[in-house]
Amino acid sequence: MPGYPLVRRLLVAAGRTMTAEQCAWSLLFTGTPGVYRSSGWREFAGTYTEGTLVPSSAGSCAAGAFRVRGATERDAVEVAALHHAYNAKRPLSSLRAPEDWAVRVPAWYGALDRSLVAEDPVSGALVGWVAAGYEGDCVEVRELAGAAGCLGALLAAVGSRGRAAGLTRARVRLSATPGVRAALPALLAEARQMTEHVGMARPLHATAESVRATVTAPGAVHWYGDCF
Description:
Blueprint: H1 5-20, E1 25-29, H2 34-37, E2 42-53, H3 56-62, E3 67-70, H4 76-87, H5 98-109, E4 116-119, E5 126-135, E6 138-146, H6 151-164, E7 169-172, H7 178-183, E8 188-203, H8 208-215
Parallel strand pairs: 6-7
Antiparallel strand pairs: 1-8, 2-7, 2-8, 3-4, 4-5, 5-6
Helix pairs in contact: 3-6
Protein name: GNAT family N-acetyltransferase
InterPro entries: Acyl_CoA_acyltransferase
């Protein structure tokens, strides 16, 4: 690896440690893939959806009966349970431990009250959660969990907040489930799917074929914050 001798030595040491600890494979995300190729990592394609924010009238029609509000610290346990249930069988997902919710999630998303939750109109129980942030003139939806019926209401609320902040575009980094696809019009107009190659994987104890099947499986999506 010309120009990266120290990085190469560190990657060799990391590979030995992961192998000794029985890690099946390694996942990373980078804007400089050439640094890692000669040490065994290979790129894979990922997708996201972007477009313009829908007008306020279209978003309000999608809100439906669900009550959407800002999350509070009192919602933390229910939000974690929603996330676990939503992602338990989805490829490439991370099932977070309590310490992840206490440290890692706030480090990436800010305090819990910066995200939104949806309540069941009858019982008042939490049925959905969404985390979004702002990147330039774009609102970026980073994670979502919950019942399919409330996803449109959550995305409509994200769009409403984005428009109030003067934003004009939206980007969605979510697993392309039928429920998500059905909810996207509540947020996006002129939606188009984009491809990026920032993910890389390296087999350790697993076969290269099984690793490739995991990272390219339909619905596979991973948020970078869970890598660190």
